[in-house]
Design a protein that fits this description.
It is built from 24 helices and 8 strands. By secondary structure, the protein is an alpha/beta fold. It folds into 3 domains: 149 residues, no CATH class; 134 residues, Rossmann fold, CATH 3.40.50.10610; 119 residues, Alpha Horseshoe (Serine Threonine Protein Phosphatase 5, Tetratricopeptide repeat). Strands 3, 4, 5, 6, 7 and 8 form a 6-stranded mixed β-sheet that branches. A two-stranded antiparallel ribbon has the order 1-2. Helix 2 packs across helix 5, helix 12 runs antiparallel to helix 13 and helix 17 packs parallel to helix 19. The N and C termini lie far apart (76 Å).
């Protein structure tokens, strides 16, 4: 970097043009033809004094283009913005000038790089706007036309495939890339190849879920997608995935060959494809290579803490990981104690196989807390003591394993220690922000500590990350959060949608459905639910259950009054 500029220095157009060429010649833009065209076009337009005309309509140059519904220009701008951010964090970190595209705008901003006086970080002054040469003007026009063609073509593809997404399953597209890692298809009938493929996918999902700049679909939903054989366009339209990672796996003796593709779901274009080879005993290196390449291609910023966790392996024992994963699948929905106790044995077996794997301890901790919240524990206090001890062991064993903090938070909240619970819940989502289970338990903790309004965001995120697996209780708990905030119509709608998608059902949720319908003035419907519940679960402890979720304030008392009026008795 050169000497610091004085307050009188200005950003001359020649310096900006030089920086533009430097950026376009970098590895970040080497194969990104659309991003190159987009950046050159908007910079040249700004230098020509036409920055105020850089609107989505102008860029697309298409009379039928509607910036409110056709998102292709915004998608391209977001991709360009991330590419520029990545460039200035890596190879361009010492460039004297920075080019930026602020969020929500298309006009580029030019500023001195770090180390320069902040008062000089401004757009190019009007008095210094220079006219580019005829040759540059022709280049700008050619690039603009090229960009127009690309936008119209890709925009057409997008409009043909885009359909409204289910709002309860996916709260909408965001600027953060959302990737679905599909199962690798074994090329042969080799059972070992199938197990290896499953392990690789599991590891990649776990690694990517640790990054705050990327969302990854949960493992359970990924398995459901495999059985549904959905097209790439359907995965985007229904669940909002921006990218899909897919491929195949072949084993020959001790060698493993993986053919991998990363696909942009908006254009169904291949962003990256490669054939990776390694030996069976070095599969971790192959997993790391794929995960790293995904972050490179999607220009994901990784802070130092995330980088350390990203490279960390939680277990080297595939059998321990298998038992852990089977237990997590089995325990959902967690309101059946036969299922919970079986999962507990599987979690314990994972710990026996690999005592350094935190997953076994965290999972077993969760089973003890679940027995308490569903009122199945013979001695709740002792069960919570075990839950706290096991979760603490998980954290001590592996501080980078997010589920350890999540299960400790759950146990603390049920033990009447809400402050300690929230500290650990926030730590869980900081360690593994893309983990649906952690986001769900964060939401549960917020409800248990009297903050249901704050719980809606993490619970919605959990559903976005794990949208396909209906057995999870994420949607039910989201309904409870809306009920606790007084949004009764939304609560009733969410709980009904959960039933339609085959989600968990039982007296725990029928109580909230009935109460919501009472608040909405639909007492006949509420009475039908109560009558059914009295027949199927006559001894259900309504008051104890509601006290855990709603506390003992006005909301709880109003709910109990309504249900009692319908014939549900309080606890004996």
């Amino acid at each position: 970097m050169g000497p610091a500029a004085s307050a009188e220095d200005n950003l001359q157009p020649e310096l900006i043009q030089t920086e533009l060429e430097r950026v376009l010649a970098s590895p970040d833009f080497e194969r990104a033809d659309r991003a190159r065209a987009f950046l050159r076009f908007i910079v040249d337009e700004a230098l020509e004094g036409r920055a105020d005309r850089l609107k989505a309509f102008t860029i697309a140059r298409d009379e039928s283009f509607d910036p409110q519904t056709d998102t292709i220009v915004r998608v391209e701008a977001g991709a360009l913005r991330r590419r520029l951010e990545h460039y200035y964090l890596t190879s361009g970190r010492d460039d004297p000038i920075m080019i930026d595209v602020p969020k929500g705008r298309y006009e580029p901003k030019f500023s001195w790089n770090r180390g320069r006086p902040p008062e000089l970080k401004t757009s190019i002054p009007e008095s210094n706007r220079a006219r580019v040469s005829d040759s540059t003007r022709k280049t700008t026009l050619a690039v603009g036309i090229t960009l127009l063609m690309l936008l119209v073509i890709t925009g057409g593809l997008f409009l043909k495939t885009h359909q409204p997404m289910s709002p309860e399953l996916n709260p909408g597209m965001t600027s953060t890339p959302f990737i679905a890692v599909l199962p690798l298809s074994p090329i042969s009938d080799d059972p070992l190849a199938g197990r290896l493929a499953a392990g690789i996918v599991e590891a990649i999902i776990t690694k990517l879920s640790k990054l705050s700049g990327l969302s990854v679909m949960a493992h359970a939903s990924m398995l459901k997608l495999e059985s549904r054989s959905m097209s790439i366009g359907s995965i985007r339209n229904e669940f909002g995935a921006t990218h899909v990672l897919r491929g195949s796996l072949e084993r020959e003796g001790n060698k493993v060959r993986a053919n991998i593709q990363l696909i942009d779901t908006s254009t169904v274009a291949t962003v990256w494809a490669d054939q990776l080879e390694d030996t069976v005993d070095k599969l971790f290196d192959l997993e790391d290579a794929v995960a790293r390449q995904v972050t490179t291609e999607l220009l994901i910023q990784i802070n130092p803490d995330e980088r350390t966790r990203f490279l960390h392996r939680h277990t080297s024992d595939p059998e321990a990981l298998l038992f852990f994963r089977q237990a997590l699948v089995l325990i959902m929905p967690p309101n059946d104690m036969t299922r919970v106790l079986t999962a507990r044995r599987l979690f314990r077996r994972a710990s026996e196989l690999d005592p350094k794997f935190a997953g076994g301890y965290a999972g077993e901790s969760f089973t003890h807390s679940i027995s308490v919240i569903f009122l199945k524990a013979a001695e709740p206090a002792k069960s919570l003591e075990k839950a706290i001890a096991l979760a603490t062991t998980a954290i001590e064993t592996d501080p980078d394993f997010g589920m350890g903090y999540a299960t400790l938070a759950f146990a603390y909240a049920l033990s009447g220690r809400p402050g300690e619970g929230l500290v650990n819940a926030r730590r869980a989502v900081a360690v593994q922000p893309g983990d649906a289970f952690g986001q769900w338990l964060f939401g549960v903790n917020l409800i248990l500590t009297g903050k249901p309004d704050e719980a809606i965001a993490p619970l919605t995120l959990a559903l976005r990350l794990d949208p396909v697996e209906p057995r999870t209780p994420y949607q039910n708990v989201l309904g409870i959060a809306h009920y606790a905030t007084g949004e009764y119509a939304t609560a009733a709608q969410i709980l009904e949608q959960n039933l339609k998608r085959g989600g968990p059902a039982g007296p725990h949720m029928e109580v909230f459905r009935a109460a919501a319908y009472v608040e909405l003035g639909q007492e006949r419907k509420a009475q039908e639910l109560v009558d059914q519940m009295l027949l199927s679960h006559p001894g259900f402890p309504v008051e104890k259950w509601l006290t855990q979720l709603l506390g003992s304030g006005d909301n709880f008392r109003r709910t109990m009054d309504s249900l009692s009026r319908l014939g549900l008795p309080p606890n004996e």
